[in-house]
Amino acid sequence: MCRHLAYTGPAVALGELVVEPAHGLYRQSWAPRRQRHGTVNADGFGVGWYAEDDPVPARYRRAGPIWADPGLTDLARVVRSGALLAAVRDATLPSADGEAAAAPFAAGPWLFSHNGSVSGWPGSLAAPAGTLPAEELLSLAARSDSALVWALLLHRLRAGDELGQALADTVAEVAREAPASRLNLLVTDGARIAATAWGDSLWYRADPGPRSVAVASEPYDDDPRWREVPDRTLVTATRDDVLLTPLKEPSA
């Protein structure tokens, strides 16, 4: 598994959300409190953020553990943003993908992360992969289940599907082909956040003033405003509103 976080609200230093909290992603990389599968998130990390008046996010990703990169600590101290998506990647089997396999994945205005795994990978997603144009398959960011799930989602987003609907339909498609998958997905365009709770923990925190929202695998502090998301639920959020929508099990 992995751990991830998305935020939109007043501009803050990246470190205020990722590094400094007592139970933030930095610490979750070796001591997560609510992770149900796996214990050490050391095979890469990434932070994506949005600059003011620029819809295309920047990213900083590395293949190693977040605690071993002093550059991230320095960067997170001075870079400020009103929207970000960050993730730490669970220890996995060796591969040649390096930082290309580390979330967030990105295209256009979107950032994406997957907390979970696709059962029966790679054979289980042969049918959905066959629906993608060849150029989209050849441009996969990495040879991982998360990269293919991202390609399936991105295909819907580029076709004009709304953020939450695209996410829900992607989860339904993958779960139908690989029923035992864990599909906690997280995507943002800088203004909106959409996420799914499907097999692991998911929480959100909405702050009324100044208005902001964070959606995360687990709370990064002990603030009582954190709320747990029920399993099989779609979360769609802006800094003004959070909507929870039950997700149905896909039909055979």
TrEMBL record:
Keyword Hydrolase: yes
GO molecular function: hydrolase activity, acting on carbon-nitrogen (but not peptide) bonds, in linear amides
Catalytic reaction(s) noted: gamma-L-glutamyl-hercynylcysteine S-oxide + H2O = S-(hercyn-2-yl)-L-cysteine S-oxide + L-glutamate
Pathway: Amino-acid biosynthesis; ergothioneine biosynthesis
Enzyme nomenclature, EC number: 3.5.1.118
Alphabetized UniProt keyword annotations: Glutamine amidotransferase, Hydrolase
UniProt xrefs under PROSITE patterns: GATASE_TYPE_2
Xref: SUPFAM superfamilies: N-terminal nucleophile aminohydrolases (Ntn hydrolases)
Alphabetical list of InterPro entries matching this protein: EgtC, EgtC-like, EgtC_Actinobacteria, Gamma-glu_amide_hydrolase, GATase_2_dom, Ntn_hydrolases_N
Keyword Zinc belongs to the record: no
Record Pfam families: GATase_4
GO biological process: ergothioneine biosynthetic process
Domain spans labelled Glutamine amidotransferase type-2: 2-252
Function: Catalyzes the hydrolysis of the gamma-glutamyl amide bond of hercynyl-gamma-L-glutamyl-L-cysteine sulfoxide to produce hercynylcysteine sulfoxide, a step in the biosynthesis pathway of ergothioneine.
Stated name of the protein: Gamma-glutamyl-hercynylcysteine sulfoxide hydrolase
Organism listed in the record: Streptomyces corynorhini
Gene: egtC
